[in-house]
Amino acid sequence: MDRIVLDRMVKIGREVLIKGPPLEALCFQGARMGSLITLTDPEGNDFRGRVTRLSEDDASIFIFDAFPSPTESSLEIILLQALPEKERMELVIQKATELGVSAILPFQSERSISLKEREAKQKKAHRWQHIAVKAVQQSRRARVPYVGKCRAFQEVLEDCREDGLKILLWEKEGELLKGVLRQHPTQKIYVMVGPEGGFTEEEVRLAKEEGFIPVKLGRRILRTETAAITMAAILQYELGDLN
User: Fold this and answer.
1) Per-residue confidence (pLDDT) for residue 119, from 0 to 100
2) 60 CA to centre of own chain
3) pTM for the whole thing?
4) Looking at residue 17, what DSSP letter applies?
5) Distance of CA 206 to CAs 8, 31, 153, 201, Å?
6) Long-range CB contacts for residues 174-179, cutoff 8 Å, separation at least 24
7) How far is C-alpha 54 from the geometric centre of its chain's CA atoms?
8) Which of 47, 57, 54 is nearest to 14 (CA)?
């Protein structure tokens, strides 16, 4: 449901009728009459279209442009983000989506604010997936990244047991990011970003047991949202489609 994939070839200047799974994906992306959307044909080519008719059973899309290359990066980035205070989570979701992140998994670490405490001040968690949808519309991406519910630190670690490079940002100790990327070429990366207070020694130990490599981003201490956005940009530049 995160991507509008057509079952037939399309041509610029023509309308295409969609129903079934593509229609579900269209609705998931919040499209309305007149909305501009990105669609993908069976060969993986991306097109730009405008919704000209929309009903419960089907929709018509006028195709007016084609992208010279895919809008989705070949690099899969799964961002594990410690829950920050105030509006910073919304900023992380928005910018990470624009930068092509595939999934965002919020978690509560020992030093981060709890979701209960955060929601007591201002209820925002229910809007996280909606924020990603809006960022997709703005950036003309074809795919909406998955935004998970906020869970415990150890729970999100269990989602990282598939193959791929696993990086944990740790300001105390860690290898240089450039060297780690050169030693572990891959097209799937898990990135774990901690809270303002940083990870505890025990959390780092648990992450390392799951294969995470502690790395540092230079000598300056970045805010959690800055670190997440910076990491996504660096990874897309080094291994993805940001060039």
Assistant:
1) 63
2) 28
3) 0.89
4) E
5) 47, 42, 10, 9
6) 174/213, 174/214, 174/215, 174/216, 175/213, 175/214, 175/215, 175/216, 176/215, 176/216, 177/215, 177/216, 177/217, 177/234
7) 28
8) 47
Q: What is the pLDDT of residue 85?
A: 81
Cβ within 8 Å of residue 183, ≥6 positions away: none
Same topology between domain 15-66 and domain 76-239? no
Torsion of CA 38, 41, 47, 52, to 10 degrees: -70
Distance CA 142, CA 5 (A): 9
Q: Tens of pLDDT along 53-90? A: 999 999 999 999 999 998 999 999 999 999 998 788 99
The answer to whether domain 15-66 has CATH 3.40.190.10 is: no
The confidence score (pLDDT) of residue 196 equals 85
Domain ranges for the chain = 15-66, 76-239
Task: Select from 74, 73, 79, 76 the least CA-distant residue to 191.
Answer: 79
Termini Cα distance of the chain: 29
Q: Which amino acid is at 123?
A: K
Residue 100: what pLDDT? 96
Q: Does domain 76-239 sit in CATH 3.40.1280.10?
A: yes
Cβ(1)–Cβ(28) below 8 Å? yes
Tell me how crowded residue 40 is: count the other CB atoms within 10 A of its CB.
22
